[in-house]
Amino acid sequence: MTTFFERFKFYSTLPNLGDIMVYCSKCAEELPENAYFCLKCGTRTRNGVTAGISPPWNWEKQLEQTLSTVVKEMEKAVESVRKSINKSNQKISVSCSSCGEKNLGSAKYCYKCGSELK
Ligand SMILES: [Zn+2]
Ligand SMILES: [Zn+2]
Hints:
The chain is mostly helical. Helices cover 41% and strands 7% of the residues. The strands form two sheets. It has a two-stranded antiparallel ribbon with strand order 1-2. A two-stranded antiparallel sheet has the order 3-4. One zinc ion binds at residues 96, 98-99, 101, 110, 112-113, 115.
């Protein structure tokens, strides 16, 4: 049975094992290789740093990410609304039967020649 300090000393002298084994740099807990945070003390692992994972207490970064997601969603929504407006504009446009001019679907008379639109 090794003490915590001995374990820590042992692990900190280990060569760089890369992705094969991950140990917490703070408490030397053995972690799954894909872990981004220590299961025991919550310290970010080298994996987490490499992957650019923000610690949960970094609210500024999280807010930034959330906002950029919201902005993207809004841009998508605006784009889809714009598309549907374009579509409905095309649908409701009416061509004048006498001069061929395109009028709004709500128009009763051609704005160019005054013919009644049907
Ligand atoms: Zn730890
Ligand atoms: Zn007309």
